């Protein structure tokens, strides 16, 4: 008997290119809408191009401002490379709305591991009236120097919005900044906080 | 006293003498009567010799033994003294003794007899009383004396008396085999041999002394305490007689001690008195040089010498003196060793074992664990204050300096936390960090590096200046032109600190501001043609710019159009 040494011709393994974001969602376009608080309206107008350019050019996300609804709308495009771009852009815009500067918020677009953490003063300690005002004053310091010192020491960005506090940075740095801010709310003197920050940063610098 | 009373007295004495010893044990009235009579007789016989005495005769009727004895004592005390004085006197002038001897011998004998009888009587009276066996001793001694003519003076009587007494008392113990007296003699001989010459000498002295002691009856009688008598007793009566006589014991005890350690002067209270007398009389010469004991010895020796002229020379040789000195020292030390130690020499002594407040008197030496409290005086405070002043002036305060820790790691550079708003965005910060991690070389200069750079430039400047000063042939370094942008901003704006004087001067010089060339004319100076020329020039410039703009715009639009077309094509496909 003749052995059929020749196998039947096997079909070529198909080569599929990775799905684009657009195709992944079955061709549907995804939207994000970020509302604009009234106090950020004018700064948005001023910084619009700075926001628009990286979103549109680099992230490949469509962005527009809905004036009637006072929202910023984001939409994926066909050539959006990654589905997460949309979310990143949404976070970026949202960060801007919270009060962060564009240049700081842009870091969200560039790095994956940056987060924004928010909490209120009343989460830490119930303060009323003058005490609250004093606590807010302690947080920022004279001319904002306490806030800046925390920012510089921990490589984060902090926004103090009356009651709310927003921190933008990597996870570890957020934690350090949050501890510093909480100790300030609870009543620690700024000098103590500074010295602790110095220790922490020196230690963290050694680690790397 | 009258003759008949004398006779009666003598009769009584004889009677007493003739009674058997056992009869004395039981009190009997007749014996008592005779004793009293004898005492009276003796008293009377002695009375003339005493100059002053409260009693002319011995009162015996209804008198107690003690009282009778006191009377006798009162009489005899001064008598004894006087006799002693006489003896001393005769010591010095032995020649007189020869003269007095025959007289004295008779009188002495009588006196001795009388004395003996007295004592016998006393003993009799005191049989049941508290009177010591002393008197018994005396009695016995006297009886012995009576027996032995030649030797028995008062003093030696006792020795013999003791012998007699011994014989009497040890009647039960002795038999033909065991002679206590012989035993005692033997023992004493042994002791004498053992302890040296002293005892023997004393013994012999005493024996010989006793022969001569006719005048010293009273002395010897009194001298129950007298050493000679004691020694005598010691010789003849020894340990066996222990329980019999307290006095005997005392004397024997004294004698024993004396045999071994030399004569003890003044064993009991009367002793010092005698010693004083002895001291007075024999204070001259040898006794001054020697110690007490030896002086006592000497006294005794001298007394003995009085009696036995030949025994010892009055003046001792130097060697003998030294020997005596040493002996006395040895005796002292031996005595000290025997005595119980003083409380300071005992080991652990509590407060109960030592006399009150005795620790205060002794110089105690013990370790003080506490530093003694410093006494603050003027000088101390002065010195302290001077030190303080000096230190303050110097500024040397003995502050505690932190001990430097071991440098295990390189000291990490402490970046001072910047209190100003950071110029870089967050993204740039992370970018820098990332770059530093991945490619350290390309990293931008850290803060310390910048500082180092600054420091190095400063140092270079300094070196340049120093070189210029120090070199003869100084060649300045080529100037490296450093570019820095200078903006035409008023100087005031550049300064951070408010200047005292405000200046409007611009930073740039006019020639730096001027950006033209050639002959510059103001507008007023221009002629018509020149104005026209200027306008034409301006128009030409403007036109050129406009065309450029238009061209670029057009290009952009074209591009966009192309893109759209491409996209549309793609969709269609």
From TrEMBL, chain A:
Pfam families for the chain: KH_PNO1_2nd (PF22891)
Residues covered by the K Homology domain: 113-186
Source organism superkingdom: Eukaryota
Main location: nucleus
UniProt GO MF annotations: RNA binding
Compartment(s) of residence: Nucleus, Nucleolus
GO annotation, cellular component aspect: nucleolus
InterPro entries assigned: KH-I_PNO1_first, KH_dom, KH_dom_type_1_sf, KH_PNO1_2nd
Keyword Endoplasmic reticulum: no
Keywords: Nucleus, RNA-binding
Family: Belongs to the PNO1 family.
Name of the protein this chain belongs to: K Homology domain-containing protein
Taxonomic path: Eukaryota, Viridiplantae, Streptophyta, Embryophyta, Tracheophyta
UniProtKB/TrEMBL annotation, chain B:
Main localization of the protein described in the UniProt heading: nucleus
UniProt feature, compositional bias: Basic residues: 531-542
Feature: compositional bias, Acidic residues: 119-168, 215-252, 278-307
Subcellular location: Nucleus, Nucleolus
Keyword tags: Nucleus, Ribonucleoprotein, Ribosome biogenesis, rRNA processing
Keyword Ribonucleoprotein: yes
GO biological process, one term: rRNA processing
Annotated segments matching region Disordered: 1-31, 99-323, 337-356, 403-422, 525-573
Family, similarity comment: Belongs to the MPP10 family.
Record function comment: Involved in nucleolar processing of pre-18S ribosomal RNA.
Record-linked PANTHER family: U3 SMALL NUCLEOLAR RIBONUCLEOPROTEIN PROTEIN MPP10
Protein's name in the database: U3 small nucleolar ribonucleoprotein protein MPP10
Organism of this sequence: Linum tenue
Organism lineage string: Eukaryota, Viridiplantae, Streptophyta, Embryophyta, Tracheophyta
């Amino acid at each position: 008997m003749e052995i059929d040494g020749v196998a039947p011709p096997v079909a070529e393994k198909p080569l599929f290119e990775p799905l684009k974001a657009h195709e992944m969602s079955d061709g549907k376009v995804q939207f994000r809408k970020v509302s604009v608080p009234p106090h950020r309206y004018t700064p948005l107008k001023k910084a619009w191009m700075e926001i628009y350019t990286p979103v549109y050019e680099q992230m490949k996300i469509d962005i527009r401002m809905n004036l009637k609804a006072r929202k910023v709308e984001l939409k994926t495009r066909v050539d959006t490379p990654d589905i997460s771009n949309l979310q990143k852009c949404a976070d970026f815009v949202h960060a801007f709305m919270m009060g962060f500067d564009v240049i700081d918020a842009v870091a969200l677009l560039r790095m994956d591991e940056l987060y924004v953490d928010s909490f209120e003063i009343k989460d830490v300690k119930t303060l009323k009236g003058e005490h609250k005002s004093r606590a807010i004053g302690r947080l920022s310091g004279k001319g904002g120097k306490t806030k800046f010192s925390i920012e510089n020491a921990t490589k984060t960005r902090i926004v103090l919005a009356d009651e709310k506090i927003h921190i933008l940075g990597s996870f570890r740095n957020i934690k350090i900044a949050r501890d510093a801010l909480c100790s300030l709310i609870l009543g620690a003197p700024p000098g103590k906080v500074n010295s602790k920050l110095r220790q922490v940063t020196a230690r963290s610098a050694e680690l790397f | 006293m009258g003759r008949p009373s004398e006779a009666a007295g003598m009769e009584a004495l004889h009677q007493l003498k003739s009674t058997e010893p056992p009869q004395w044990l039981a009190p009997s009235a007749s014996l008592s009567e005779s004793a009293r009579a004898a005492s009276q007789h003796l008293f009377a016989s002695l009375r003339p010799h005493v100059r002053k005495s409260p009693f002319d005769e011995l009162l015996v009727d209804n008198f107690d033994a003690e009282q009778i004895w006191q009377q006798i004592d009162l009489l005899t005390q001064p008598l004894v003294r006087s006799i002693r004085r006489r003896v001393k006197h005769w010591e010095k002038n032995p020649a007189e003794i020869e003269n007095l001897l025959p007289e004295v011998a008779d009188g002495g004998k009588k006196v001795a007899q009388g004395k003996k009888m007295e004592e016998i009587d006393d003993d009799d009276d005191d049989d049941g009383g508290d009177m010591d066996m002393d008197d018994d001793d005396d009695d016995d001694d006297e009886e012995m004396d009576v027996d032995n003519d030649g030797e028995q003076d008062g003093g030696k009587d006792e020795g013999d008396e003791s012998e007699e007494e011994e014989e009497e008392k040890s009647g039960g113990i002795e038999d033909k085999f065991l002679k206590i007296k012989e035993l005692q003699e033997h023992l004493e001989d042994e002791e004498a041999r053992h302890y040296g010459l002293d005892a023997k000498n004393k013994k012999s002295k005493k024996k010989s002394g006793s022969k001569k002691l006719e005048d010293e009856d009273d002395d010897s009688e009194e001298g129950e305490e007298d050493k000679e008598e004691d020694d005598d007793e010691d010789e003849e009566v020894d340990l066996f007689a222990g329980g019999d006589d307290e006095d005997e014991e005392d004397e024997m005890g004294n004698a024993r001690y004396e045999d071994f350690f030399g004569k003890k002067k003044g064993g009991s209270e009367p002793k010092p008195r005698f010693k004083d007398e002895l001291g007075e009389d024999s204070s001259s010469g040898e006794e001054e040089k020697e110690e007490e004991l030896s002086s006592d010895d000497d006294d005794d020796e001298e007394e003995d010498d009085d009696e036995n002229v030949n025994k010892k020379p009055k003046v001792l040789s130097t060697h003998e003196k030294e020997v005596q000195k040493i002996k006395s020292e040895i005796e002292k030390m031996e005595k000290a060793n025997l005595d119980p130690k003083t409380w300071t020499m005992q080991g652990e002594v509590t407060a109960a074992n030592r006399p009150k407040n005795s620790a205060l008197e002794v110089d105690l030496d013990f370790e003080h664990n506490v530093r003694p409290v410093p006494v603050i005086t003027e000088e101390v405070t002065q010195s302290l204050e001077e030190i303080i002043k000096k230190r303050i002036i110097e500024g040397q305060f003995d502050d505690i300096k932190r001990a430097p820790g071991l440098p295990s790691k390189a000291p990490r550079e402490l970046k001072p936390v910047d209190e100003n708003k950071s110029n870089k965005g967050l993204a740039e910060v992370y970018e820098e960090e990332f770059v530093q991690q991945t490619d350290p070389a390309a990293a931008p200069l850290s803060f310390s590096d910048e500082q180092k750079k600054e420091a190095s430039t400063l140092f270079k400047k300094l070196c340049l200046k120093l070189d210029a000063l120090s070199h003869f042939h100084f060649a300045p370094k080529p100037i490296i032109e450093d570019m820095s942008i200078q903006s035409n901003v008023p100087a005031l704006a550049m300064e951070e600190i408010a200047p005292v004087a405000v200046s409007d001067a611009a930073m740039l010089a006019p020639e730096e501001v001027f950006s033209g060339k050639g002959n510059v004319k103001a507008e007023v100076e221009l002629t018509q043609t020149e104005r026209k020329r200027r306008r034409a020039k301006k128009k030409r410039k403007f036109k050129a710019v406009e065309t450029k703009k238009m061209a670029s715009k057009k290009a952009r639009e074209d591009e966009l159009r192309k893109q759209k077309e491409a996209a549309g094509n793609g969709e269609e496909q």
